[in-house]
Amino acid sequence: MTSSSQLTGRVLLVEDDEVIRRTVSDHLLELGMQVRELATGDAFLRAVSEFDPDIILLDLGLPDGDGHDLLFKLRQISSCPVLVMSGRDDRHNRLKSFGLGATDFLSKPFYVEELAARIRLRMRQVAAGSQQIGPMIIDRAAHRVLIAGVPAELTPLEFAILSLLAERAGRVVTRDALAVDLEGFDPPSDRALSVHISHIRKKIGTQSGTHLVTVRGVGYRLDP
Asked: What distance in Å separates the CA atoms of residue 15 and residue 41, rounded to the nearest whole number?
């Protein structure tokens, strides 16, 4: 295990399936993270308060309730990133999860290595904190973009792309560099990336105080 693969931070794992819970916990512990496990939602809010996690891994199908209810209650008291893990991966449950404030959604079954990659991305965003460019605020901890105080409804991938471009504002980011840095996502094709960039432009608009430039044959640049 190389040092570059290590992770630090606290993970609250809420999963009723003992095999999945044990597998995920063992892998994250091996990577260097602190893990608190819950098999039900009964002590969820108390664990959030006491353990103060850096990220929460939340199953939707719990024996004593629905994970969506826990997510709703959490967002009344905390902006902690939440990665939902569920076999209920239909469009309705995905959209409901994001609508309630989920940071990411991972369908079961999954590879623990992919889960770790997604956690690594979230932790990097949290560590980077918030960034303001003109009237646009990119809050990596809460995983949201505010433009003059109004939220911009970006998908997780769109947020990741905008966040990476904002980290290097004023500099060209090549398509290859974006593909490499988008940990936890399948590398988008050039065509798909162009579509995502177009969506981001429309969603942040001119009110953001930025100009998202396409540098033909090279990549993209976010200019203040």
From this structure: 9
Q: pTM of whole model > 0.70?
A: no
Other beta carbons within 10 angstroms of residue 221's beta carbon come to: 17
Q: Of 111 and 187, which is predicted with more confidence?
A: 111
Residue with tokens 């009344």: 76
**The residue to which tokens 């939707």 are assigned:** 60
Tokens of 43: 């002590």
For residue 208, the model assigns a pLDDT of 84
Domains of the chain: 3-126 (3.40.50.2300), 129-223 (1.10.10.10)
Position 215, amino acid: V
Whole-number Cα distances in Å, 112 to 47, 108, 109, 120, 184: 23, 11, 9, 12, 11
For residues 224 and 134, the answer to whether their CB atoms sit within 8 Å is: yes
Structure tokens at 78: 């905390």
Query: Given the DSSP bridges, would you call strands 55-59 and 61-62 parallel, antiparallel or unpaired?
Result: unpaired
Residue 222 has pLDDT above 70, yes or no: yes
